[in-house]
Write a structure and sequence with these properties.
The complex is a heterodimer of chains A (389) and B (94).
Chain A (H helix, E strand, L loop, with lengths): L2 H12 L1 E3 L1 H9 L3 E4 L3 H4 L3 E2 L3 E2 L5 H8 L7 E4 L5 H12 L4 E4 L2 H7 L4 E2 L6 H6 L1 H4 L5 H10 L1 E5 L5 H11 L3 E5 L24 H12 L4 E5 L8 H5 L4 E4 L4 H14 L3 E7 L2 E7 L11 H4 L12 H4 L5 H18 L8 E6 L4 E6 L21 H7 L2
Parallel strand pairs in A: 1-6, 2-4, 2-5, 5-6, 8-9, 8-11, 9-10, 11-12
Antiparallel strand pairs in A: 3-7, 12-13, 13-14, 14-15
Helix pairs in contact in A: 10-11, 10-16, 13-17
Chain B lengths: L1 E6 L13 E6 L2 H11 L3 H5 L10 E5 L2 E2 L14 E7 L7
Parallel strand pairs in B: 1-5
Antiparallel strand pairs in B: 1-2, 3-4, 3-5
The chains are: A alpha/beta (389), B alpha+beta (94).
The complex binds zinc ion (ZN).
């Protein structure tokens, strides 16, 4: 008798085995189903309700998956051998009730028990996003959410550049970019998606080139348009999150109004010389809805009091900081972790190296997001900002 | 009268000779702002409208609370209170 066979027989005397059918019944009563096969084995199918933890990481990860050592565990592999070894390890770890499923996934399938084909990362994705997979809060599930996500960036400029760059790196599957501008040499002090040899070409085309060089597996959808009341809903439809990196008030209000109407979270950033601001406007959030831009500023400043960025100037690094704070908020929203910046404004003062947080409250009488508000329609934003306040 | 610090946003620092914080005395937000206007002529035109209310493109915070959610300009201030003037800023550095 081989050593393997002898050892398996020993294990069978101490580890209780159950048929797939009995395991399914126990699982429905609350026992945890753990599949310890390798990723490429699981890619072909997994028992419905099973948690996949590869054998090599079982002892390290079981506690995150099943914190209570009193929970009965049902261990599954391909044929019922590896699950015996795994079951013994888990028992030594302190789990009281551990059973091994006879015949493993092969028999589970043959017996007609419920199976699903899981979304799993391929080998290349596993390598590319390895540092995300190691974080329990993200892991494979979170990475799949990022890969399935669609994020629309308004502006491929100072804020949009760092946001889009890191969101592409993080594996956000589809990035939309709205910008009707072309690359100018004066942009390159901060707009890191673009390069000196692309001066004069469209920012959308330049952004696409940079993003796909970094991560060829994502899709970049470009809109070489200036957002206006007529095209905004066509462009905004179907995205999960909007990132506002616009450089003018008419676009800020338009982005706000469309995001409110479509219920989209609007990750807002702005910069001025050495100062930046970030918040997430999301009145459509199911729990703890926040304010919209209009709750804060019902009207923009008149043009003579609102110098453009070109006149005011901006430290080139600053939009990097602010745009990346926006990108962090986007990732949190997509994966569903942490405390989003909803109802809070984060102000960054680069000269003092200081962050200040201010509370933003929803205005219940807001025309766009107030209690019982009916969307009043889009307006002439250029006109609104010419005569405002 | 309380000693109050007023944080001046970058666009208004032309009125304060570049200073990002100004110390004033007052018992209410309104008194503190009036004192700011006395020290730095012209700055209040940007913050308050003709009727004396806070302009619609500006928010004033006491600590981390918008005074609009407190008692407005009549909100009383204590010693070492911090007021922040926060106007709308469009810039995305396109
Ligand atoms: Zn609102």
């Amino acid at each position: 008798m081989s050593v393997k066979k002898r050892r398996l027989e020993e294990l069978r005397r101490t580890i209780e085995e159950v048929t797939p059918e009995d395991a399914w019944g126990l699982h429905k009563q609350g026992a945890a189903l753990i599949d310890v096969r390798e990723p490429d084995e699981v890619a072909g199918g997994i028992a419905v309700g099973a948690r996949h933890i590869v054998r090599g990481f079982l002892e390290l990860k079981i506690e995150d998956a099943v914190p209570d050592t009193g929970t009965p565990l049902l261990i599954m592999c391909a044929s019922g051998a590896r699950s015996l070894f795994a079951a013994e390890d888990l028992r030594n770890l302190g789990y009281d009730d551990v059973k091994s499923i006879v015949g493993g996934f092969g028999r589970w399938k043959d017996d007609g028990l419920p199976v699903e084909v899981p979304r799993v990362l391929n080998a290349e994705q596993r390598e590319r996003y390895g540092r995300h997979l190691s974080i329990p809060e993200i892991g494979e599930e979170g990475q799949i959410k990022l890969l399935d996500a669609r994020v629309l960036l308004v502006g491929a400029g100072g804020l949009g550049s760092p946001s889009a760059y890191y969101l592409a790196a993080a594996g956000v599957g589809t990035l939309g970019i709205v910008d009707d501008d072309v690359v100018d040499r004066s942009n390159l002090q901060r707009q890191i998606l673009h390069t000196d040899d692309r001066v004069g070409i469209s920012k959308v085309a330049s952004a696409r080139q940079t993003l796909q060089a970094l991560n060829p597996t994502i899709e970049v959808v470009g809109y070489e348009d200036r957002l206006d009341s007529k095209n905004v809903e066509r462009i905004f439809e179907g995205w999960d999150v909007v990132v506002d990196g616009a450089d003018n008030f008419p676009t800020r209000y338009l982005v706000n109004d469309a995001s409110v109407k479509l219920g989209l979270p609007n990750v807002h950033g702005s910069v001025y010389r050495f100062e930046g601001q970030v918040t997430v406007f999301w009145p459509g959030r199911a729990d703890h809805p926040g304010p919209c831009y209009r709750c804060l500023y019902p009207a923009p400043p008149p043009p003579e009091l609102a110098p453009s960025c070109a006149e005011a100037g901006v430290l080139g690094v600053l939009p990097g900081v602010v745009g990346l704070l926006q990108a962090v908020e986007v990732v949190k929203l997509l994966v569903g972790i942490g405390d989003p910046l909803v109802g809070r404004l984060l102000q960054y003062d680069a000269l003092r190296a200081r962050f200040i947080e201010l509370r933003l409250e929803r205005d219940p009488t807001c025309e766009y997001c107030g209690d019982g508000a009916v969307f009043p329609g889009y307006i002439d934003y250029e006109q609104f900002c010419r005569v405002a306040a | 009268m309380a000693n109050v610090t007023i944080r001046i946003p970058t666009p208004l620092r032309s009125f304060t000779g570049g200073a990002d914080e100004i110390e004033v005395r007052g018992s209410t937000v309104e008194q503190a702002l009036t004192a700011l206007g006395e020290q730095h002529a012209g700055i209040l035109d940007y913050v308050l409208d003709e009727a004396g209310g806070v302009r619609r493109f500006v928010n004033v915070y006491l600590g981390d609370r918008n005074i609009a959610t407190l008692d407005g300009l009549g909100t009383s201030v204590e010693d070492s209170a911090v007021l922040s003037i926060v106007p709308a800023v469009a810039g995305g550095a396109e």
